[in-house]
Amino acid sequence: MPVQNSEIADAFEKMADLLEIEGANAFRVRAYREAARTVHGYPRSMADLLQHGDALTELPGIGKDLAAKIKTLVDTGRLPALEKVESRTPAALSDLMRIPGLGPERVKALYKKLGIASADDLKRAVDSGKVRELEGFGEKTEQMIRDRLEHFSIKQARSKLAVAEDIAEPLVAYLKKSDGVKDIVVAGSYRRCQETVGDLDIVVTASKNTPVIGHFTRYGQVAEVVSQGQTRSTVRLRSGMQVDLRVVPEASYGAALHYFTGSKAHNIAVRKLGVKKGYKINEYGVFNGNERIAGKTEAEIYEKVGLPFIPPELRENRGEIEAARKNRLPNLITLEDIRGDLHCHTKESDGRNTLREMAEAAAQRGYEYISINDHSRHVTIAHGLDSKRLLAQVGEIDKLNEKLGGIVVLKSIELDILKDGTLDLPDSVLKELDFTVCAVHYAFNLPREEQNERILRAMDNPYFNILAHPSGRLINQREPYQFDIETIMEAALERGCFLEVNAQPARLDLTDEACKLARDMGLKVALSTDAHSDNGLGLMRFGIKQARRGWLERGDVINCLPLHELKKLFNRK
Ligand code: DGT
Ligand code: CA
Ligand code: CA
Description:
Elements: H1 5-22, H2 26-41, H3 46-51, H4 64-76, H5 80-88, H6 93-96, H7 104-114, H8 119-127, H9 138-155, E1 159-160, H10 161-176, E2 181-186, H11 188-191, E3 196-197, E4 200-206, H12 212-217, E5 222-228, E6 232-237, E7 242-248, H13 253-261, H14 264-276, E8 280-282, E9 285-288, E10 291-294, H15 298-304, H16 320-325, E11 340-341, H17 355-364, E12 369-372, H18 387-403, E13 408-411, E14 414-416, H19 427-430, E15 437-439, H20 448-460, E16 466-467, H21 485-495, E17 498-502, H22 512-521, E18 525-528, H23 540-549, H24 563-569
Parallel strand pairs: 4-7, 11-12, 12-13, 14-15, 15-16, 16-17, 17-18
Antiparallel strand pairs: 1-3, 2-4, 5-6, 6-7, 8-9, 9-10
Helix pairs in contact: 1-2, 1-5, 1-7, 8-9, 13-15, 20-21, 21-22, 22-23
The structure holds 2'-deoxyguanosine-5'-triphosphate (DGT) and calcium ion (2 copies).
């Protein structure tokens, strides 16, 4: 089993963390981080590139040295350079850096002064009040670490959907190669497209006595076989992910798929409907007495309880059964409904590609439009645009639009909402844009009322169009800031503004439930990738998954509209 891109990226990330803690040269640290990003986001595996003799040095941010390191990793599964660093500095310090509020300096101080080298060490030190005594920490910081540690330990156990996908896809491809295997589906929360996944539940149909279980346990990524039987097995992979595999006969395939897709609450509700009709439903089928009356397909199961097929993303017992009964299930949005992307970056701020490259990549996806939303000047990143540079970009886009055919580039920006609720650039400049995307990027810890006020005040500006990543959360990493989403949604509806569903796998912000809330209120959303590269446009599918979990239909999403109708929505005056 070849080394996966995510493993290479993890190794480089870890290298960067440890070097940063050691106080190494900042360029060196950044080079590893850049490389991690490149490798992680790359659509083809490094192993595959090497096998085809493609030069890794063609990839952005990968020089000779890093290319050699990637090759070593692919060839041997090890990175001696990292092992050398780990012999000086405990590898677990890198995990501590994932705790919000703990940068390299603080992790280093905790390690050097208190010998803290793991989350458990840290917890003990916090509990005994030692941390507050360190220089530069204090009681408040200690309390913050205590709070964060709680979330940290709970949430680390769940993987982001995109990470789970990187793990599941090669495993499924591997299982397909086993003799006698027919269908393979990754069920569970993965199939329901939940934003994080606890473990993978794979359902397989295979002809009798096929060696699929043995094939599964011999997978190269398996770290431990937890259990192994005739028709089921559980393993833990090197990534830490646990995988349950069930082999079922074709006659039970639908029933097993339904059962293992869950959610548990949905299953229980469906079973109750079965009981009312005198049926028993389990993972083997629907039974009337001893007779199996359904089980081959999921649709059959639903049919026997008098329901139409319910898409996996809706199976949370959040009203889908009721809606199905009334034949009012939403006609869920699909990737094909999307006509353009409304949040993208270029090299001009912190993206990787040029304006033209982004436009061409969007055209290749069959989009009608793409907007360019480089950061405004205030944001804490280096290359934010001031008025002058934004106006220059506007001119450049006008020129490009004259040359391009088939796709229109919209002039936009990702504006900072300043602490007092003003927007980062003057109206006299904003009026030159087609629309704006506005976001909170700092002062996350304002009290709820102030944060609400800040956003509402920003929305009062008639040039405000879309609130980007509305809650500011980063999955497993940063809690949402304190604010009242319903108040913001109501205000957006009144003023003709929109909220974004940011498709970045670490953001997925709005959440599924917030999407549903918006829909119920009649507030439309923008489904956007926040792409920082041409490949980044491909993240749209994660936004689609989230939107589907939030019951959204094509009509709920503004970038399903043709350009002339979309433009009308942006004119608030
Ligand atoms: P996860 O892994 O925490 O992200 O969430 P799931 O939904 O994948 O849950 P998991 O892996 O524990 O179980 C997979 C599915 O199996 C679950 O969605 C529904 C089904 N299931 C598990 N335990 C039960 C149970 O006690 N009763 C019923 N009806 N279904 C269950
Ligand atoms: Ca699961
Ligand atoms: Ca499971």
